[in-house]
Specification:
single chain; alpha/beta; binds inosinic acid; binds magnesium ion
Length: 172
């Protein structure tokens, strides 16, 4: 097992997730909200966010993948589509684990927008702002991080380390 340095521990993540849940709830109040989570990475974040969200929440999933080597190429593949009926006319929050180049969030945002939600925002746990290629900013973000490859709390390195309860950096 590689050595992993903790970037955000469980307590820090939990605190920030509660803040995001409250911020979102103060926006929507009693109105129904559809959270669209992206498999697989955003699942841990989505579960915690929804457990802390005190309003009327629905949950949908989609899955995309980018042809990847070390970094994103911008070619996105839709692996699991959404049902447009669940989106049309609804308040939608797209939940992502991390925004890096922005290709993925840009693709998902356009895909969901084409289903005519009543409103649409994006919420990412992590934002690598300095790496952006596509001009897109998440509406809500947990932490803005430097250009580091992070793992844990859903994020993987070759499908490994998703199950770590903290967010960390692999020491090479
Ligand atoms: P983008 O399309 O370049 O913004 O990349 C988004 C996707 O790349 C994320 O949803 C992750 O799956 C993956 N990714 C980007 N940076 C990291 C990282 O530091 N750790 C793990 N996965 C990452
Ligand atoms: Mg992802």
């Amino acid at each position: 097992m590689d050595k992993i340095n903790v970037l955000y521990n469980e307590e820090e993540i939990d605190k920030r997730v509660r803040e995001l849940a409250n911020e979102l709830h103060s926006k929507y109040g009693d109105e129904e909200v559809v959270f669209v989570s992206t498999l697989k990475g955003a699942v841990f974040f989505t579960c915690d966010l929804l457990k802390r969200y005190p309003g009327d929440a629905r949950l949908e999933f989609l899955r995309v993948s980018s042809y990847e080597g070390e970094s994103s190429t911008g070619k996105i593949n839709l692996k699991l589509p959404l049902n447009a009926e669940k989106i049309n006319g609804k308040h939608v929050v797209i939940v992502e684990d991390i925004v890096d180049t922005g290709y993925t969030l840009d693709y998902i945002t356009k895909y969901v927008r084409d289903m005519h939600p009543k409103s649409l925002v994006t919420c990412t746990l992590l934002d690598k702002k300095a790496r952006r290629v596509v001009e897109i900013d998440p509406t809500y973000s947990g932490f803005v991080i430097e250009d580091l490859f992070v793992v844990g709390y859903g994020l993987d390195y070759d499908q490994k380390y998703r199950n770590l309860p903290f967010i960390g950096v692999v020491v090479k």
